[in-house]
């Protein structure tokens, strides 16, 4: 992965938005999956304009969440205290270095949230007002992840927020927009993406353990300790793939959906499935590799799932 470097204003803004890490694309994944599931379950094809609006809305909510988190982590002194910096954790350092004004980053995050909310109202006008249920849930949880008074990530609920926003809220919004109902069949495919998102944030919190503890950010890694958090990391990865298996068993996904499991075999660093950190808990190179591999696992598993769904469509098309 190539990371942005340089100190121009544009580069600094792109870095504070974490563009090079591609975190924002995580919010695009459930839009693609939800669109495919909507067609599979109800033979409804999303209007391209609405699809684009949902994509943009999901991404700008994510950008708003990342930037407001950057602001409040700077305000609390959290990011300045991080002593184990990786490209995926500990903040971008842009505010600590004085390369951007904190208040400008806060205003930019609020602008992203406002754009996302405006897009939500437009989608509601074009489709169904019920879509606003999940839009408001997404807005409140993304803003409240780090912003007072909610501060979910300080209260041990941050990982749950990530879990819900990585799958269920976005796919639920798609189904509400076009069917007006919450379809129970979306739960297992949604939790697949949600659990892998949970695993990513959990791994990214490990290098920040001491800094988070000092500012009383009582996320699950701080509450459990690093070793038990690493056990939980493996459990949620297991639950992600169990979600796929169960979805196939209950016929919420076709058999080809099992292709998502191939992500396990092609991830570059398989130590994420069994490694105990021990003394390596302070090895930046090891932590960077584990963070990167957890992100890679989600991207590749999602790609294989989408390929499986595409293959299922093609097989049925040619056999019909």
What does this 3D model show about the protein?
By secondary structure, the protein is mainly α. The protein has one domain. The chain has helices at 9-16, 29-42, 48-75, 78-81, 102-126, 131-144, 158-165, 168-179, 187-205, 209-214, 220-224, 226-249, 263-266, 284-319. Helix 2 (29-42) packs across helix 8 (168-179), helix 3 (48-75) runs antiparallel to helix 5 and helix 9 runs antiparallel to helix 14. The longest helix has 36 residues, at 284-319. The chain is globular, with a radius of gyration of 19 Å.
Low-confidence stretches: none
| Biggest beta-sheet profile | none
SSE pattern, N- to C-terminal: HHHHHHHHHHHHHH
Number of helices: 14
- Overall number of domains: 1
Q: DSSP strand (E) fraction?
A: under 5%
Q: What is the subunit arrangement here? A: single chain
Kindly report how far apart the N and C termini lie: 42 Å
If you compute it from the alpha carbons, what radius of gyration comes out, rounded to the nearest whole angstrom? 19 Å
Label the overall shape: globular
Give the rounded overall mean pLDDT: 93
By secondary-structure content and strand pairing, the structural class works out as mainly alpha
Total count of strands = 0
Fraction of residues in helix:
55-70%
């Amino acid at each position: 992965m190539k990371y942005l470097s340089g100190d121009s204003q544009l580069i600094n803004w792109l870095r504070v938005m974490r563009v090079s890490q591609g975190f924002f694309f995580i919010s695009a994944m459930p839009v693609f999956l939800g669109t495919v599931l909507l067609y599979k379950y109800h033979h409804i094809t999303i209007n391209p304009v609405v699809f684009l609006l949902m994509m943009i809305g999901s991404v700008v909510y994510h950008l708003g969440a990342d930037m407001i988190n950057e602001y409040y982590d700077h305000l609390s002194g959290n990011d300045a205290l991080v002593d184990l910096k990786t490209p995926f954790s500990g903040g971008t350092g842009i505010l600590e270095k004085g390369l951007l004004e904190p208040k400008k980053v806060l205003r930019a995050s609020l602008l992203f949230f406002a754009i996302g909310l405006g897009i939500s109202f437009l989608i509601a006008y074009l489709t169904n007002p019920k879509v606003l249920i999940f839009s408001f849930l997404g807005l409140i949880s993304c803003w409240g992840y780090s912003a007072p008074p909610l501060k979910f990530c300080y209260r041990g609920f941050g990982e749950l927020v990530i879990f819900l926003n990585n799958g269920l809220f976005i796919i639920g919004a798609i189904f509400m927009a076009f069917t007006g109902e919450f379809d129970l069949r979306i739960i297992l495919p949604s939790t697949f993406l949600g659990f892998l998102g949970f695993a990513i944030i959990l791994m990214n919190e490990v290098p920040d353990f001491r800094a988070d503890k000092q500012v009383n950010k009582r996320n699950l890694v701080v509450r459990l300790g690093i070793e038990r958090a690493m056990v939980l990391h493996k459990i949620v990865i297991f639950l992600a793939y169990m979600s796929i298996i169960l979805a196939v068993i209950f016929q919420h996904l076709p058999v080809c959906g099992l292709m998502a499991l191939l992500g396990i075999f092609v991830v570059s660093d398989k130590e994420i499935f069994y490694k105990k950190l021990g003394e390596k808990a302070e090895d930046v190179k090891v932590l960077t590799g584990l963070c990167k591999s957890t992100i890679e696992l989600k991207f590749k598993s999602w790609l294989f799932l989408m390929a499986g769904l595409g293959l299922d469509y093609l097989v049925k098309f040619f056999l019909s």
